[in-house]
Every structure is written in structure tokens, then in C-alpha cells.
């Protein structure tokens, strides 16, 4: 796509409000980030040298990880043309931004490998179960020996079939959905972004978010089936949880 010139102050504003929208869905995100940082440093016995954030959106987590570990090479992967542009415009140049599709297991060919930490936050619910299983296998390929994969998403332990959960949003999720819609609606009024929004609409027209949610045990089993020697709960807040999987 042709690069667009976005006003840096507005980009900063959109990224800040995005962060607030995500906190509406998962108020415990700051605690999750602290736990991830501690686990990543413990896994390597030092700060990670190579970090990859999959489905990183406009890059708030990538930016915070880059600040926390200034010597690390941090890469963000996403598919959404709007969010990729906000990431490119808002992130420090040290953070690499790449476009790839997590629904295809070929993404490690774009990102390269040797990562000490791979994070996937609030993203796997966009994928169908087969693609999530394939993502675990591809992440294994992209990790360095001893590397840590963290997958955080809606992982309720309510025993319900996932189609039932879609009918029963958790507390606060209605307000968060509204804030999400307002955030995207706000961008719709910005002429410089119109082309990117049209490209986004084309991209996602035939591939709406899968909306698949599984419990943490499902994710742990998928990670083990993909060859991770260790996989288990790293963090939980209500219906949201994070799985940590490590290569041994
Ligand atoms: C709810 S957002 C979360 C973004 C970010 N992780 C955060 O916490 O702010 C989900 C992200 O997954 C990305 N995504 C969805 N499907 C994808 C795919 N097939 N390949 C790459 N990224 C995808 C979306 O573009 C979006 O940035």
C-alpha cells in the first residue's frame, strides 16, 4: 500500500485510546505484562534478546517491551492495514513492523526465527481452531531453544461450549465492545485513513473473527501436541487467562 502521512499527535492519541479500549476488555493487562516480563527473564536468565508480538495491533505492548528491554530486537506482526500503519507511525524505529497472516503457518518465513519470547495477546480468538493449532506449531519453529510463548485471550474455565459464550458476554464486555466500535468509528471520520479503512474492509469481508474461545486446558493440549515440553497457566483474571509454553 502507498504510505500515508499521518499527524504524529493524532497517531499518539489513537494509540492511547486503543490502549484504554483494550483495558476495558482486560483490566488486568498491566499485571499480565509484568508477569510475562518476569517469566521471560527467568526463562532465559537474562532479558530476552529477540521478542516477537503476534497480532500486535498498533503496538502498545511492543513499545512497552522495547522500553523495558532496550537492547532487545522487537518485532510486531499484524495483518490489518490500519493498525499496521498506526504501529509504523507511532513506534520507535527500533521496533520492526511486519505484515503477515497468522491464519497461514508460513508467517515464520516473514519474521525469521530465534525468538526468546513470543507474545500473542487478544488475537487467537480471530482464528479457527485448526489455525490456532498451526500457530502453536509455527511459534515453536520461530522460538529459540528455551524460548517462551505466551498466549493470552478469553479462556474461560466455565465448561460451556464456546458457541454458548458468544451468547453470554462477560461483565463489562458490552461497554468494551461499544468503546471498540466508537474507536473504529472515530477513524472513519479521518480522510487520510479512508484508503486504509477500505483496504481493511476488503481484507476482513470474507474472514470475520472466528470468535472461537477454548479453556486453558485446550490451549495447553494444543501447545503440547505442537511439541512444547511444558505448557500451563501463567496468569488469570476472570474469563481471561494466559498460557505459557516453553521449549526444552
Ligand atoms: C483485539 S486486537 C489485539 C491487538 C494487540 N495484541 C493488543 O493487545 O492491543 C487483535 C489483533 O489481531 C490481529 N489479527 C487478527 N487476525 C489476524 C491474522 N490472521 N493475522 C495477523 N494478525 C491478525 C488484528 O489485526 C488485531 O491487531
SSE blueprint:
Blueprint: H1 8-25, H2 29-44, E1 50-54, H3 60-68, E2 73-78, H4 81-90, E3 96-99, H5 108-111, E4 115-121, H6 129-142, E5 143-154, H7 162-167, H8 173-187, H9 194-205, H10 216-225, E6 230-237, E7 240-246
Parallel strand pairs: 1-2, 1-4, 2-3, 4-5
Antiparallel strand pairs: 5-7, 6-7
Helix pairs in contact: 1-4, 1-8, 6-10
The structure holds S-adenosylmethionine (SAM).
Bound molecules: S-adenosylmethionine
- Give the CATH topology: Rossmann fold
Report the β-strand fraction as a percent range.
15-25%
Q: CATH superfamily, called what? A: Vaccinia Virus protein VP39
- C-alpha termini separation: 40 Å
| Main sheet strand line-up | 3-2-1-4-5-7-6
Helix content: 40-55%
SS field, number of helical segments: 10
The CATH architecture term is 3-Layer(aba) Sandwich
Taking pLDDT < 50 over at least 5 consecutive residues as the criterion, the unreliable ranges are none
Task: Name the helix and strand elements from N-terminus to C-terminus, one letter apiece.
Answer: HHEHEHEHEHEHHHHEE
Biggest pleated-sheet summary: 7 strands, mixed
Q: What is the overall pLDDT average? A: 93
Rounded to the nearest angstrom, the radius of gyration is: 17 Å
Oligomer: single chain
**Shape type:** globular
Number of strands: 7
| Domain module count | 1
Level-1 CATH class name: Alpha Beta
What does this protein structure show overall?
Helix content is 46%, strand content 20%. It starts with 7 loop residues before the first helix and ends with a strand. Strands 3-2-1-4-5-7-6 form a 7-stranded mixed sheet, with helices on both faces. It has helices at residues 8-25, 29-44, 60-68, 81-90, 108-111, 129-142, 162-167, 173-187, 194-205, 216-225; strands spanning 50-54, 73-78, 96-99, 115-121, 143-154, 230-237, 240-246. The protein has a single domain (8-246), classed as 3-Layer(aba) Sandwich (Rossmann fold). The chain is globular and about 50 Å long. α1 (8-25) crosses α4 and α6 (129-142) crosses α10 (216-225). With 248 residues, it is of the alpha/beta class. It binds S-adenosylmethionine (SAM). S-adenosylmethionine binds at residues 22, 55-57, 60-61, 78-80, 83, 101-103, 121-123, 126. The site of S-adenosylmethionine (SAM) has 17 residues, from α3.
Amino acid at each position: 500500500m502507498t504510505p500515508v502521512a499521518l499527524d504524529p499527535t493524532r497517531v499518539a492519541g489513537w494509540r492511547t485510546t486503543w490502549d484504554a479500549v483494550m483495558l476495558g476488555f482486560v483490566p488486568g493487562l498491566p499485571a499480565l505484562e509484568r508477569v510475562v516480563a518476569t517469566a521471560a527473564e527467568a526463562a532465559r536468565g537474562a532479558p530476552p534478546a529477540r521478542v516477537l508480538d503476534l497480532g500486535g495491533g498498533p503496538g502498545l505492548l511492543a513499545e512497552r517491551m522495547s522500553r523495558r528491554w532496550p537492547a532487545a530486537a522487537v518485532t510486531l506482526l499484524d495483518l490489518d492495514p490500519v493498525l499496521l500503519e498506526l504501529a509504523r507511525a507511532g513506534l520507535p524505529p527500533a521496533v520492526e513492523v511486519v505484515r503477515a497472516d497468522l491464519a497461514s503457518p508460513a508467517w515464520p518465513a516473514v519474521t525469521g526465527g530465534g525468538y526468546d519470547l513470543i507474545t500473542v495477546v487478544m488475537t487467537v480468538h480471530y482464528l479457527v481452531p485448526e489455525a490456532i493449532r498451526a500457530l502453536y506449531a509455527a511459534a515453536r519453529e520461530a522460538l529459540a531453544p528455551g524460548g517462551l510463548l505466551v498466549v493470552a485471550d478469553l479462556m474461560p474455565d466455565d465448561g460451556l461450549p464456546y458457541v454458548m459464550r458468544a451468547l453470554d458476554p462477560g461483565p463489562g464486555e458490552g461497554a468494551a465492545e461499544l468503546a471498540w466500535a466508537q474507536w473504529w468509528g472515530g477513524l472513519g471520520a479521518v480522510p487520510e485513513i479512508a484508503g486504509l479503512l477500505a483496504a481493511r474492509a476488503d481484507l476482513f469481508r470474507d474472514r470475520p473473527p472466528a470468535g472461537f474461545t477454548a479453556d486453558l486446558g485446550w490451549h495447553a493440549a494444543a501447545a503440547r501436541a505442537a511439541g512444547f515440553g511444558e505448557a500451563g497457566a501463567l496468569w488469570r483474571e476472570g474469563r481471561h487467562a494466559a498460557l505459557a509454553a516453553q521449549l526444552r
